[in-house]
Amino acid sequence: MIQTNLVTWESFEEEYRNTGGFLFEDSLSIPGYTICDWYFELHEEVQIFYSKKENLSESITNNLSKLDEFRKEGYFPCGALFFELGYFFIEGLDLDSSGLEEGTPLLHYTIYKQKKRIQYPNPNHTQRDQSAKQNIDILWTKDTYKAKWEKTKDALLLGESYELNLCFPISLSVEGDLFSYYQSLKSKQKTKYSAFYPFKDKRILSFSPELFFEVKGENIQTEPMKGTILRGTTSKQDEENKNTLLSSAKERAENVMITDLYRNDLGRIAKQGTVQVTDLFLIKGLETVWQMVSKVEAKLKDPFQWFPILKALFPSGSVIGAPKRRSFELLREFEGYNRGLYTGALFVSEMLDGLPWIRSSVTIRTIDFRNEKNIWIGNYGVGSGITVLSDAEAEYEECLAKLKFISNPNLPPFEILETMRFGHGKYFLKDLHLERMEETAIRMGFPFSKEKAEASLNLDHNPSLNEDVFRIRFLLNERGEFRLESFPFTKPKIRQRIRLGIASWPVDSNDLFLYHKTTNRSFYLKMLEECKAKSIDDCVLFDRDGRILETNIRNLFLKKGKFWFTPTLETGGLPGVFREALLRKGWVKETELFQSDLIDADEILVGNSLRGFERVELIL
């Protein structure tokens, strides 16, 4: 039985900074919160490095046995397995002929005396120290990558491997507090296997979305991850990207190969007939990418021990390829560097209700920092699976996509927003508003319940609202909580024409918030201030290629001949629900429109679900 205590962020931060220890965290399962397994009070710390003078085989085996013994005695062994330890565990390879340099790290573990599980609210931007400065250096150019990719492809065509996970290094330097930096990155990459692991003059920050294995008693579960594509900006593009990944022959072939490799590996340590694939081709959404995941489970034929488990599984086939031994050898040759902790593993272990409970993540999206003159220098890696169906350009872009959660700025705090008109006991276009809110929630990773939304919009308890017309602000936060604000709304009897100008500069089409209605409207507010300075009511936004999009608070409609048109908004702009209703009825058509179309239009209207159509006076 696992007991979880709820604490405030402030109390947790203060206590952790005083106590330290290993944090193994799930910031995905409960929106807005982190479930933290906190291991602390150091008993023993051990590091094993490559050395020609030492009997490493005996040392590694004995230390793995110590991990089992400490766990049975009630301690909490936690640690890190470095990729180069594969020379010890992969059948047919050995450390003596590895060619590793003296001092190459192989294994690091810490024995803790205590552990507690807590849940704390994720800190907002005002609670996190934002002063850390980072610098990112991509160590392979695209040309370097392509040259190594060609060698990789040649090996695949010769049949030396079915798939190879080609990786390259990235260097990071950070000035500032690494614990705050960790919390900042965690807000951009919410996963079930985040970790903050401090020891001596080093720090490991991990944001891995991939479970290596989990053991509970005799049950073992693995979740190989293979297949990645960027999230889209619009809800439509995001769904298209998800479906592209799901239907990709190349990505599915990779996933099947690695899933089969895991089945074979588990078969070496499992009871006969218990290995089964419980899920295949699951698509999971992170903030910046979609990932393809499968699940393989089994029952262990013997009680858990570290040595046989790692002998069968380490390193994860998802970060090497198949077959494992030859793929490992080829990658060491082609890559030409030590991966270090990248694509190794982190683990925590304990006894729970008298049974072993061990969890290990594959160390992707992981930074291994060392301190040099008060600057933290970090090693990070990115990679992707190469098959005969691969394209060099696409693979390089996939690798860079896995860097985005570090390079992208932190999103400002925001809520998802719908502005609705309520009158005579009804919401205008309510279903379309809820549909759009749900699409935005999916893209932003917010939980959404239509039943809770409907209940929150029920105004039967306030009959006074049924007598007049109101502007309703309906908001959803990251924890899935709805709230409603109401304001009287009166349309003028004589409508003035909207004085409409042209924006002074193009929009940034990469700005996610241009495509989704949220409380983060800083760009629109800035543009409206400029409109006010020009004595106009609103302005037409446009992209870098001159395509017109929308105005700051309205969608745009142009009549040319007998037909009405509206901009496509594929490069920026909020698809209003009023616009969507007109499109579904076939009253308007989407098309690319430019400023010249605006000038030549027979008629111009703007509109939204609150105000309906409004006529325009174009000010050029």
Automatic annotation (TrEMBL):
GO molecular function, one term: 4-amino-4-deoxychorismate synthase activity
Domain Chorismate-utilising enzyme C-terminal, residue spans: 142-402
InterPro entries from the UniProt entry: ADC_synthase (IPR005801), Aminotrans_IV (IPR001544), Aminotransferase-like (IPR036038), Anth_synth_I-like (IPR019999), BCAT-like_C (IPR043132), BCAT-like_N (IPR043131), Chorismate_C (IPR015890)
Record bears the keyword Transferase: yes
Keywords recorded for this protein, A-Z: Aminotransferase, Transferase
Keyword Transferase set for record: yes
GO biological process: L-tryptophan biosynthetic process
A matching Pfam family: Aminotran_4
Protein name according to UniProt: Bifunctional aminodeoxychorismate synthase component I/aminotransferase
Species name: Leptospira noumeaensis
Top-level taxonomy: Bacteria, Pseudomonadati, Spirochaetota, Spirochaetia, Leptospirales
